[in-house]
Automatic annotation (TrEMBL):
SUPFAM superfamilies with a match to the protein in the record: GST C-terminal domain-like, Thioredoxin-like
InterPro entries per UniProt: Glutathione-S-Trfase_C_sf, Glutathione_S-Trfase_N, GST_UstS-like_C, Thioredoxin-like_sf
Origin organism lineage: Eukaryota, Fungi, Dikarya, Basidiomycota, Agaricomycotina
A Gene Ontology molecular function term of the record: glutathione transferase activity
Protein name: GST N-terminal domain-containing protein
Signal peptide positions (record): none
Amino acid sequence: MSIITLYDIASTHPGQAWSPSTAKARYALNFKGIAHKTVFLEYSEIEPLCKKLGAKPTSQTSPQYTFPVIYDPATGTVVSDSIEIARYLDATYPNTPRLIPEGTAALHYAFTAAFEATLPPFVHYALPASLPFLNPASQDYFRQTREELFGGRRLEDVTPTGNEHTVMWKKVEDAFGQVDGWIRKNGAESKYFMGDTICYADVTVAGFLRWGRKVLGKDRWEDIMTWHEGRWANLTKEMEKYDVIF
């Protein structure tokens, strides 16, 4: 029996997976219990593969083609972008737990935009810290494209130090505090964005937490785990059972 292929970005990490974007797709597949396999590729292989498969570009600017991408041989369908993958899986496999409940697609797109707007302080730490974990075949590409995001600054100069670190790290905490505040609108005891039920918004946050766990280092990761009454530690623990690489 043919199963879904998830395309992910190679690294030197045990198990290789590190990207927050592909983590969201993996969480979705495992949350739903859908059989799949993972193929890891270098950055230089992403665009040729996407064009070969007919995957849609995910951006109008460079890089236009990104992972995750899935190929489902059962339907002959190729899907790119983690939220589109979640919607596809919900629609195609209706007997599995939904990640984007009926009538909440617009809210999930709005959440994604709002959450991404909180991320720049976090990215100042996580992006530079990712470089050493990439294979040599991908490091030059990653450096070039990511340094462009920071106005040409070397990645080594992007990570805040000294007083700048104190200020920026507080901004990271405040950003996650904003997300914590959104969840608390459900009530102080709410575990997830939809109360006691995991949805795609939780998967999105978990994907970025996983990225932090992989690249930030022990001290910064342990600091995050103490924030907001342990909410992020609890979410990370809850998602561990869906963090299986096939």
